[in-house]
Amino acid sequence: MGLSVKILSLMVLLAPLVGGVISGVFGRRLRPRGAHFVTITGVLISFFSSLYLSYLFFFDYAVTQSFPLYLWATSGPYHFMIGLLIDSLTVSMMLTVTFVSLFVHMYSIGYMKGDDSEPRFFSYMSLFTFAMLCLVMADDFILLFFGWEGVGLISYLLIGFWYQKDAAVVGGFKAFIVNRVGDIGFLLAIACAIIYFGSTSYTDVFAQLAYKSSEMIRLGPGLSASLMTVMTVLLFIGAAAKSAQVPLHVWLPESMEGPTPISALIHAATMVTAGVFMLCRLSPLLDYSPITLSIILVIGALTALLMGLVALVQCDIKRVIAYSTLSQLGYMMMGVGSMAYQTGLFHLFTHACFKALLFLAAGSVIIGMHHEQDMRRMGGLWKRMPITWLTFLIGALALTAVPPFSGFYSKESIIEAVHHSSVTGASFAYVCALIGAFVTALYTFRAFLMTFHGQPRFDEKHQVIQESPWVMLFPLVILALPSVGLGLLLVHLGVEEVSSFHLTELSPAFIGIMCAFYFYRIHPSAADRAKRYFGLFYQLLLGQYGFNEINAIIFVSGIRRLGQFAYRVVDTVWIEKYTIQRISHYFLNISHFIRGKHSGSLGYYALCMLGGVFILIASVCLGI
Amino acid sequence: MQTLLMALIFYVFSAVLLTAGAMVTLTQRSVHAVLWLILAFVAASGLWILIEAEFLGLMLIVVYVGAVMTLFLFVVMMLNLSEENRVERGWRHWIGFIAVFMMMAAMIILSLSIPDIINRDLNTEILWAQSHDLRSLGIALYSDYPSLVELAAVILLVGIVGAIYLTHETRVHRKKQIIAEQHKVTKQDRLKIISNL
Amino acid sequence: MAISLSHYLILSAILLGISFSGIVMNRYHLIKTLMSIELMLLAININFVAFSHYMNDMTGQICVFFILTVAAAESAIGLAIIVCFFKRRGSIAVTDLCELRG
User: Fold this and answer.
1) Does C27 touch chain A (CB under 8 A)?
2) Which of A442, A562, C1, C56 is the most exposed place for a label (fewest CB within 10 A)?
């Protein structure tokens, strides 16, 4: 068998770490070229190792392996082992992560050219890859949480990479804070695991599921819920924050302030799918809680539809793709919620490829347009950037789920699974999914047509628009391959199966594409008319349903008021005035008193001395 | 009869002692205070002689009255203080006095309530006849505590030196001869050669 | 009506109280303070002598001997200090000895 699974997986895990640390520590001395070499070598090793691992798992029938690495901590009866779990799910995630990461690294050479802190950027990316691999390969909640927080941290750092830009800093903060909300849920779920299962290891938890499933948790007086429901809802809160599901999605559009390769790697392909992955990894838990499944299903459906609609009115090319990411994450959640975990994962893999492709293509457009992101100032680019055009088209077709592109198979299987699901809310989700498919096609081709076709809406004389360098186009081409063929490949390998082509599931996509052509190619004025007809709705979409405003009112101003209260009442009055100042006043008064006694009068001192002697003698004589 | 006489003597001397002690603090003039103190010492020495500490009683008169009290009197007269406007009367003045007396009285009562002290009184009569003559005091002093006698001598020496040091005035512009300086003198210090005269 | 140890003890205690009140009351005359201290030592000495007599032990008298010595040295140095103080301040009031006041 050659290299053992353990060695291989350690190579996968640690190569990016080494590369990232070297690039981060010696970045100044390495220069950009050295940083490229170090980090890409690390990721390349990681990629080939995971490729070999996936060969072992899918063709050589290697068995699931779980091996402890070291004992991280011991606390009373609990032993927290850090270990890796390698099975086919892990391996396919590893392959996806390292694959996308590798090509995004390459792409970044072109995209980040000339930036002052290139080594820092590459270091972050490699460290991100490491953290993501930790998350994926963990065999217990602790390492999972470590990876979870690691990717969150590096996401924050990379969104705020251009820290001179206020919007980037604010976006980073927003991502960080929203993710904290999810982390609370996740941490509480881990606490549940420790309390009720006595272990953080997946295998230990899963082994006890059968007889713990009926256990109840008292949430409050007269209120109790099943352990499984509580734990899975908490897990879902964590997953919803990381995977940007509806109430907690607000950070993802803001994260587009970061460099585009980051948007492709972190906010499309890997990190945001961590929630989906986590739920799939812990799917044995979900099986015991129909309530949670319903919640996941409904929230996924809402995300898929609502966020797709928002994408319709966005003009920033990256934001359109960001909202489409939200929408697709909703689809994945729907797959999870309908208990068809493999379909969610399947969509995760295909989505990782075509969404990374779309983002990178958009990045190529942005570089070509000299950092112009507004689609209203683009148009007619297809002649000038043919390869970008072609790859974007492939990505768009995959996203729209046109057969035989990869997105078709995955989305088809999700919709099919939702259709046949018996989970409560499935019919609602089914309708949402179909409308969502239409909307997806509409906004995708709207963006495509606005960017690449029609009359150029920029100053042609003053701007030289040219195709991006090959170092950026090569990853596009490579990523286009699985976007086209991954679905077919997996279906032919028998990993996934698609029963048949359903007209109900295909037609929304085609109708959407046609509508897009009608509105943006044939009758451009129709779009404006539609805008006027649905004025209120349009405003609602532009305002993104007011989530930010609601957050601002409830949470921001609420917390600000709480802070004001804490400052005005708790700090300045209770602590400052009644505690600290009072104590100091006591001391001051005592010292004033003592100072008054310290009069320098010899007679007074003698009297006090005599008083002391008196007390001494009295206590001795009275036997006190 | 003898007991009664002794008791009488004790009370007379005690009364004199306490009166003199009180007058030391109460009198206005310092010279009078010193004289009252001398009277107190004399009375105390009488009491000591009553309980067969003749040597110490005489010592008290010779050393204290003869030397220390004379010293006091000498200093008081030397300083020649004007003390007419320094007389103090007032309630604050008496509060201290009363407080001290109350505490003293309480302490005496408390001390006497310890049975040990009372019990010691029981065997006084038996020990009465024992002699406390000067000879035995001398033997005890020079055979048992010679080092303490030396130490007392050193303390007295220190007292002398300290007193002289404290009161001695060094005149700044006094003319004095410093032999070492004289020996160090060279030709250049004394002679000044003026060439172009 | 025999004179017992208690009589002497009470006498010395009263004398101590008088001399102590002399220290407490006296505010303008440092020499009187010194005299009160002498009186206190006298009270202590009476105690020693009385104990020595009633317990038939010579050690008490030897203590008195040393106390007298120390008291003589102390009063000599104390008077020297008073003289110094008077030279510097022109007064020997206790109330002027207040450099250590807080």
Assistant:
1) yes
2) C1
Tens of pLDDT, residue by residue over A230-240, are: 889 999 999 99
Tell me which residue range forms the domain holding B58: 1-83
Task: For residue B174, give how far its alpha carbon lies from the nearest alpha carbon of chain C (Å).
Answer: 20
Structure tokens at A202: 């997946």
Residues A428 and A393 in one domain: yes
Do residues B25 and B50 share a domain?
yes
Is the pTM of the predicted complex or chain greater than 0.90?
no
Q: Are residues A416 and A520 in the same domain?
A: yes
Q: Which of C24, C37, C39 to mutate to test the interface with A (most CBs of A within 10 A)?
A: C24
Give me the residues of chain B with pLDDT under 70, please.
Answer: 82-93, 112-132, 171-172, 197
Please report the pLDDT score of residue B129 as a whole number: 44
Point out the residue among A594, A600, A607 whose CB comes nearest to the CB of C24. Answer: A607
CATH number at residue C20: 1.10.287.3510
DSSP state of B121: G
Question: Do B103 and A610 meet the contact criterion of CB atoms below 8 Å apart?
Answer: yes
In Å, how far from its chain's centre is CA B8?
28
Q: Are residue B19 and residue B67 in the same domain, yes or no?
A: yes
**3-state SS track over A326-349:** HHHHHHHHHHHHCCCHHHHHHHHH
Question: Does residue B61 fall inside a structural domain?
Answer: yes
Domain-located, residue B127: no
B66 reaches C (C-beta below 8 A): no
Q: Please determine, for residue A71, whether its predicted confidence score (pLDDT) is greater than 60.
A: yes
Average pLDDT of every residue of chain C: 84
- Please give the residue of chain C at the shortest CA–CA distance from B32: C32
Point out which residues pair with A70 in neighbouring strands: A82
**Looking at the structure, do residues A511 and A374 belong to the same domain, yes or no?**
yes
A556 or A122, greater pLDDT: A122
Q: Domain range holding C54?
A: 5-96
Q: Is C12 on the interface with B (CB under 8 A)?
A: no
Nearest-neighbour CA in chain A from B102: distance (Å): 10
Answer whether C95 sits within 8 Å of A610, measured CB to CB: no
Structurally, how many domains does chain C consist of?
Answer: 1
A391 contacts A414 by C-beta, under 8 angstroms: no
Comparing C-alpha atoms, which of A387, A392, A410, A382 is closest to residue A355?
A: A392
Residue C30: inside a domain: yes
Domain hosting A506: range is 289-529
Tell me whether residue B195 is in a domain.
no
Instruction: Name the minimum distance, in Å, from the CA of C49 to any CA of chain A.
Output: 22
Do B77 and B19 lie in a common domain?
yes
Q: Is residue A39 included in any domain, yes or no?
A: no
Determine, yes or no, domain membership for B182.
no
Beta carbons of A603 and C100 less than 8 Å apart = no
Chain C stretch 50-79, residues whose beta carbon is closer than 8 A to a beta carbon of chain B? 50, 52-56, 58-59, 61-62, 64-66, 68-77, 79
Shortest distance between the Cα of B4 and any Cα of chain C, in A, equals 7
In a domain, C10, yes or no: yes
Kind and range of the H or E run holding A71: strand A65-75
Interface test with B, best of C79, C84, C85 (most B CBs within 10 A): C79
